[in-house]
């Protein structure tokens, strides 16, 4: 199981001989599911090339504070905001001293000053430098400020001496970094979520759609990411911003949504169909805008519709299917209709919501739902869509846990 899923780690590399180990550290951080961006000090570039770290991290390496190219792509403030964790490994005695003094004369120290996320440092230096009273006093100050220390450990050093000052072994650094984050209820799980409405084209300017805003689906994606899951969000047209850490795939029609879902859903642990998928689409789509005179028959427009494929039902019928959760937006007999849908579509769970009331459901910021699964039923009173999402994710995680225990 990955321990750093969705986490953004900004790896600071300073100029000590242990800098060569940062290449391996990047790989280990990525194996645990994190995205890594590297900031190097000038001195670090003498020990390992930025190109190596760029190739491994798959992101440009940032070095200079006033580097026009990297600043335009992602400046120091953006990097500070981007990171969930700043990990400086190796951290030299010079870097430690600069951190104590609050210096901002290079990119890494500036980012450390600007960041609000946790900061962890893995010191590495000659044993006498580590034992020096200045270094010790500096470390004490940093510890008091809440900076996390990973190591150093004792052992044979590159300079031939033996003692404390060796960079902590890479695997332990990654374990210590992971332990700084709460382990979420869906840690390492892969979720595919559909959201928003679909648009079924009539001609190049007209379509059939519905009032779905995508708010509930996006909130569920956000709650799943918070719980440590990896999320692919397949969304119809919406005007809201998608969670930054989700892999977003935009679609228009139900048919496109069907195709995109089936590219990924077989690998999912959990599939949640929140999208309000149009049940029907026009039988033919006109290539040119239709004229009134083309469409009118006895003062009406007989538009022939054909049925769309049911996305969630096709996922639920995979031989080895993900835990499949549907939504039932209803206006009458909410619970009984939702129960019928649960059985008919072969789902593991369904969330019923009343969309007859304007204050809940489709376009509102709040929702009032009932979650139904196996022989259980849980009502979620009126609350924000974000809170509804957190409850739904917690119920799914609990149910999955119980199912694995059975
Ligand atoms: O049958 P109904 O449209 O009410 O079912 C709602 C549930 O089925 C939702 O989870 C929705 O995302 C899903 N659905 C689907 N494909 C369709 C229609 C609905 O996945 N073509």
What does this 3D model show about the protein?
- The protein is α/β, with parallel strands linked by helices.
- The chain has 2 domains: 8-179, Flavin prenyltransferase-like (Rossmann fold, 3-Layer(aba) Sandwich), CATH 3.40.50; 190-405, CoaB-like (Rossmann fold).
- It is built from 15 helices and 19 strands.
- An 8-stranded mixed β-sheet has the order 12-11-8-13-16-17-18-19, sandwiched between helices.
- A hairpin with a 5-residue loop joins strand 9 (200-201) and strand 10 (207-208).
- Helix 4 (76-82) crosses helix 6 (107-114) and helix 10 packs across helix 15.
- The radius of gyration is 27 Å and the shape is elongated.
- The mean pLDDT is 93.
- Cytidine-5'-monophosphate (C5P) binds next to helix 13 and strand 16.
- Strand content is 15-25%
Strand order of the largest sheet: 12-11-8-13-16-17-18-19
Full CATH superfamily name of the largest domain:
CoaB-like
Determine the structural class based on helices, strands and strand pairing: alpha/beta
Question: What general outline do the C-alpha atoms trace?
Answer: elongated
CATH architecture label name of the largest domain = 3-Layer(aba) Sandwich
Number of separate structural domains: 2
How many helix segments? 15
Oligomer: single chain
Mean pLDDT reading: 93
Largest sheet, in brief, is: 8 strands, mixed
CATH fold field value of the largest domain = Rossmann fold
Distance between the termini: 20 Å
Fraction in helix: 25-40%
How many individual β-strands? Answer: 19
Stretches with pLDDT under 50, minimum 5 residues: none
CA radius of gyration: 27 Å
């Amino acid at each position: 199981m990955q321990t750093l899923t969705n986490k953004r780690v900004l790896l600071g590399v300073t100029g000590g001989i242990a800098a060569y180990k940062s290449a391996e550290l990047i790989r280990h951080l990525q194996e645990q599911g994190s995205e890594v961006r590297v900031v190097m000090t000038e001195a670090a570039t003498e020990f390992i090339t930025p190109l190596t770290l760029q190739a491994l991290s798959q992101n440009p390496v940032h070095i200079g504070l006033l580097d026009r190219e990297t600043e335009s792509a992602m400046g120091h403030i953006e990097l500070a905001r981007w990171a969930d964790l700043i990990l400086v490994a190796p951290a030299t005695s010079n870097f430690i001293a600069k951190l104590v003094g609050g210096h901002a004369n290079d990119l890494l120290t500036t980012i450390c000053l600007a960041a609000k996320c946790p900061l962890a440092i893995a010191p590495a230096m000659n044993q006498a430098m580590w034992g020096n009273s200045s270094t010790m006093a500096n470390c004490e100050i940093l510890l008091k400020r809440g900076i996390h220390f990973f190591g150093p450990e004792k052992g044979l050093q590159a300079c031939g001496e033996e003692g404390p000052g060796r960079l902590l072994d890479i695997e332990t650094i990654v374990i210590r970094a992971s332990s700084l984050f709460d382990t979420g209820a869906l840690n390492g799980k892969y979720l595919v979520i559909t959201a928003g409405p679909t648009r079924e084209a009539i001609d190049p300017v007209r379509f059939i759609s519905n009032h779905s805003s995508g708010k509930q689906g996006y909130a569920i994606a956000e709650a799943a990411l918070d719980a440590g899951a990896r999320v692919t969000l397949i969304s119809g047209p919406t005007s809201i911003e998608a969670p930054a850490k989700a892999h977003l795939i935009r679609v228009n029609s139900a048919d496109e949504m069907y195709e995109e879902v089936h590219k990924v859903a077989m690998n999912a642990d959990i599939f949640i169909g929140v999208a309000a998928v149009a049940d029907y689409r026009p039988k033919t789509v006109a290539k040119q805008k239709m004229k009134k005179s083309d469409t009118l028959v006895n003062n009406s427009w007989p538009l022939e519709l054909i049925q769309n494929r049911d996305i969630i039902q096709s996922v639920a019928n995979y031989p080895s299917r993900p835990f499949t959760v549907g939504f039932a937006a209803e206006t009458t007999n909410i619970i009984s209709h939702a129960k019928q849908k649960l059985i008919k579509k072969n789902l593991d769970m369904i969330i019923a919501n009343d969309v007859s009331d304007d204050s809940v459901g489709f376009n509102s910021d709040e929702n009032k739902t009932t979650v139904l699964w196996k022989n259980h039923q849980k009502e979620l009173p009126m609350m924000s869509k974000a809170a509804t999402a957190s409850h739904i994710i917690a119920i799914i995680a609990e149910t999955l846990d119980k199912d694995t225990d059975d």
